[in-house]
Amino acid sequence: MGLPSAAGAGPVSGRPLYLHLLDRELAGSVGFRLTPRVFEHVVKCLLLGTTSPLCCGISLVWENGGLGEREHRLLSALAEHDSFQPISYQGTLDEFVSSRQRLYRHDAHRYPLYFGRESARLELVRPTLHKDADTTEALQGSLLAWAGTGDGGGSRGLARRVVLRALLKRRERAITFSLFQATARRVGGGAEVEGEVKRRISTAYTRHYLDFLGGDLPTGVPGLSRFDGDLSADFPLFDVPLLTVLLRGVGLGAVLDSPWHEHERWWLRFLVERGTGAHWALVWNLGAVLGAVAALRPPARGSGEQFTARAAMRAALGGLCEVEGARAGEGSLVAAAADRSMAVLGRVVVGPADLGASAAGPVVPAANTATGAVSGGVTQVGSVHGGLHQHHHWHAPVPEPRRP
């Protein structure tokens, strides 16, 4: 057994991660704007800090105006190496486009990709994972169930009425906010009712994909915390701000913080070995660190509790990583990072008092599967190069020439 994670998933969960940040309807419901910089940082953080495949419905990729050709090519490269799994209900690309044209006929101006020559761009990222259940039908069932229950008062009660009335006369239209907009205006309630409807659609849509995948979503994406408490399962294992602190602290800041295209060759080599050898050891250690630090605090469930826990953990992790970050240099980048992460883990186990353990109680001794050692009051931390973990030579990258 390893050190405890926040929700028992284990330091290397491998649980599929759903990229809700690509959902423009969800983003619009909370005023979030996806930029290439935010997209790239989150994706790179999850590639380095987890072994999980990244997943989402293929429509989220094609319909998001925040993604350009460079981002599509990045996702295409990830799909080629099984690190990204685009999902579709339809069997072929032509079937998918035809279904979108039928669903969005009433709203074609918002989806030009499906109604003109631009559709050739869809070849860049093709679906690789088939989903049997029709998302639209599942979404309708979930929303009807919500609309028929609960309190009928206030903005939420009005939102339930809007959803029920619009769905009863939907016919073949897609379930996006456009379907409910006219009804919402007739019912009244203004921006509050519209916001309730938008977020209910997005929550139901996201939960459908999480259930299909048995997955989780990355937490801590700036602007999307509204959904973290309701939809995430294993905080803090997939928390972007906390993984960022750890990855920089173990010497991976150069590839994490630089544009993908500057180190593209390095990334492509890394993708071949992702989830094995030194990278597996790195992810195990990072997960164990997060689990051990989280175990010193009460479980964080809602978004507000996650925010408070993240702030405390971030401060603690910053202190733990300070020494290792100062020593970070060139060499076999991922293997060196795995070694540094082992040293960070050793400091968590040896010195829990620095993290407030004196108030929360001692860390339970645990066997370290990376070394075979048992962690107690005093621990000697070994190297991941021996034993089970192969040493892969991912050297520090040399930036490639900037592309126009």
From TrEMBL:
Residues 384-404 are annotated as: Disordered. This is Uncharacterized protein.
